[in-house]
What does this fold into?
Amino acid sequence: MPIIVMAYDPQWPILFTQLADPIRQHLHHHDVTIEHVGSTAVPGLAAKPVIDMDIVVHDVDAISAIIADLTTLGYVHRGDLGIAGREAFYAPTHLPRHHLYLGHQECPSIRNHLLVRDYLRQHPHAVTAYATLKQQLVQTCGDDIDAYVAGKSQFLADILRTQGMATHDVDAIIGQNQPPTYTTPPRP
It folds into this structure.
């Protein structure tokens, strides 16, 4: 399937809110925040048209209960997909396509999402450079999502290092070099 990267759509934050509100209400008894992450969370950034959401947990002991609560909303737990500390879910099929992840606030994968998003929101020149890189990768990678993700790795690693993430955490995140953070998984 070809990789589609489109111009920023101002409806993406609205769609995030529509997706996050029911989860937020359902998890009201847990100490969590729900964050819009990924490229659709950065105004002006070209992106694949899939909303990425992180449920950031402040009490690691609550993760199992939150997983159970999410299943009652129709989310299907997929496990960590090889990324320790971050749980992934299939979205209910009746909802718009989105990625949902769950992790403790200190999980490097969760911190990665937040640091990159916040950096890009504050640095318009980086948004332009990242959009250009993504468009070039779409042209050169065709439908090879692994090559597309790998092609973005150094750019993202540079941001994470600039933001003070420990080298071993950056290397672990970039070394995973797999698409769970950015691809659209097949639905069950």
Q: What stands out?
A: Residues 12-181 form a domain with the Beta Polymerase; domain 2 fold (CATH 3.30.460.10).
